[in-house]
Amino acid sequence: MCGERAAVDEEVTDSWVTDVLHSVLARYNPRDVFNADETGLFWRLLPDKTLAFEHEKCYGGKKSKERLTAMVCTNIDGSEKWPLLVIANKRAWMTGKLFIKWMRSFDAAMAKAKRKVLLVVDNCTAHSHVAGLKATELLFLPPNATAKLQPCDCGIIKNLKTHYRSLML
Q1: Total tally of structural domains belonging to the chain
Q2: Please, what is the Cα angle at 74 between 140 and 147, to 5 degrees?
Q3: Domain of 74?
Q4: How far apart are CA 156 and CA 78, in angstroms?
């Protein structure tokens, strides 16, 4: 294990899954359980490898560091994918104000559809409790557990980036 996965406290995550997650999930239909997460995207970064013939010269250039953040949101069964929230502010980070604004919009759409949903998010500082939600229950992952518990980190974000790069090329 390396990186973020090495920092995960297995006892904490295992007990959270057993004691918290299972009881909360039991109250919802899988179509009504959502997960949202942000990822950084170097939107102008071209691949650093190419196919070329042996005798051809290939020159590299500077790598673009122009970054934005995209927040993905989907439900457990994959039947509902929310439009990406693209953040291109000075630092390209999610802020508390942006999260609250997005949450209110998400909650309003769920209330209009007469749905009660669960939204699982990590516990980063920008993700705060949002008062007055009518149709959405927020569930925060335990600290330092996203490498193990965050569904969007289990291939959803990687798939998005793969498709983006393919379309960009």
Answers
A1: 1
A2: 50
A3: 3-168
A4: 10
